């Protein structure tokens, strides 16, 4: 593990070991030294969870029962994602930071010990026992009270480089099949720490939605010889009416068949399989559209919107010619004081009912004065 | 449409037309006449919604934008599901009832006008425009303050017969492919009317989760010659530790790979494709296990649990030899004051993380003193 590494755009990564053996990575724009030691007592790591096959639908479910006792919405003075200042020893030993990524203290998925392979899906007698993978936490800023949308463009650029670096490194682990950086925001969707941060889940199996995207893309390639996502983007550009922002390298739109009152997809105009494929020009043009989209979202009702913002990438080893990078932002907020819930049709049947036309939602997002 | 029909167990169905042309069906244990007219002014029916293909995953999404204005948690004296007494003219013209089923006033899916066929799924240029199907509301009792678990066994028997009758009739409609009776309970999951009731969704397409269950069952049949669900049930019976209730005709268990803190599947020991296949003995033995399961669920924390209770049936026209009827109850409540939320991993990736071992949840349900 390199202690210090130069990334693109003059960004430097410094790795440090935490007291319990986990790694913390500092991503900085200046060549800071990051040497503050983690002074906390060593605590025992939770055991690796189980991965169980749900045979009814041939999908893996990770069991992480050690997560029941997680800390819930601590006040700022007890926030474990703030820098260490004064008495409180947090997850970040330094007294300030730009962007940091550290291994999750209560991970749903953990690196496997020894040889590890996923069995074929074979029905109700499949026992596996090991939820292999890796979960990391990414803090966007040391400032507890900020949101993604308040970050400077320069900071979003560092954040993007950190996501790229993590995708690059995690892709090299032989047990990892898929990497998903995402941010959950808002108590309405169960966020337990309000400090601006995201997570990176690296799965040892294809997540069911990715598997389904891959199947659709493969089927489309076989029947038309074209890449599905490129055609989807072409239709959005042709239709125009659901586009909410664009610049020379990126486009943001409410998809034709969105599932949430507010759903936005952000994609590079020159398609790539994953974050590591973005050119320097793509990377430099991302902060502007990302900040515009997030400000439009919070502007619709003038309140902080609960959302999930997730990067969809091609899996690490397969489907790289047919799947495309895009950033999906979904909000369950349909009006001030009203949320969309996933009830019988969505949850039990998987059949989504949308209460709002995507064109209406796109118009509301476009009308926001920035 | 038969005005009056004798069903099993001495239950009688009486159909009446509502003021706006919708149908209400009274299910009664005595031979009541149900003649009270709907005295409300005729109001315009909302137009049929759109069905849009989400090409990323090849799934249909129904657009029902007219539903935004639905009434939200009205007090008892304004409840549209109570019987009509005094001034308030409700959805049910009679002054009392046992079980009623009526066409939903704000349906997500509506019967199509004229010829209607689902196109093959073909990618981003698929336009359809018509969310065909049918949505009905089923009231379990005239008593606004009751819950499913407070019903008498005799009333649950009527309710079951109503579900069976609706499955039977809706199966005859050529545009209907799948029928899902379900109940949503609890403000935590967005229930807008607290009167004890459920819904019946009849889809003109296979809901995505049903499609996935069908694919898994077909694959299992091809590779083993066995019915997947029967083998799942056999494993649950062999493992024993997740079974929470059983009688001579039914069994209830927390599935091996459950996805929610409390998830219970209830299945007949003699497998059938759908509700209409249940024998008289199965039907008569259902109320006892249904009430036991619901009382165990509310007993775990001594509070009313939010839940979704959905009947999984074989589709109307396909997969009838490989899919089996079962009743799935899921609750997002993981502790008093704590809910499980579907965030980044579950919502964006479809990858479920369970915070609790199913065996633990089964033990808690078994330990409830009834």
TrEMBL record, chains A, B:
This is UDP-glucose--hexose-1-phosphate uridylyltransferase. The keyword Transferase applies. The lineage of its organism: unclassified sequences, metagenomes, ecological metagenomes. It catalyses: alpha-D-galactose 1-phosphate + UDP-alpha-D-glucose = alpha-D-glucose 1-phosphate + UDP-alpha-D-galactose. Its cofactor is Zn(2+). It holds the Pfam family GalP_UDP_tr_C. The keyword Transferase applies. Keywords: Carbohydrate metabolism, Galactose metabolism, Metal-binding, Nucleotidyltransferase, Transferase, Zinc. Residues 218-368 form the Galactose-1-phosphate uridyl transferase C-terminal domain.
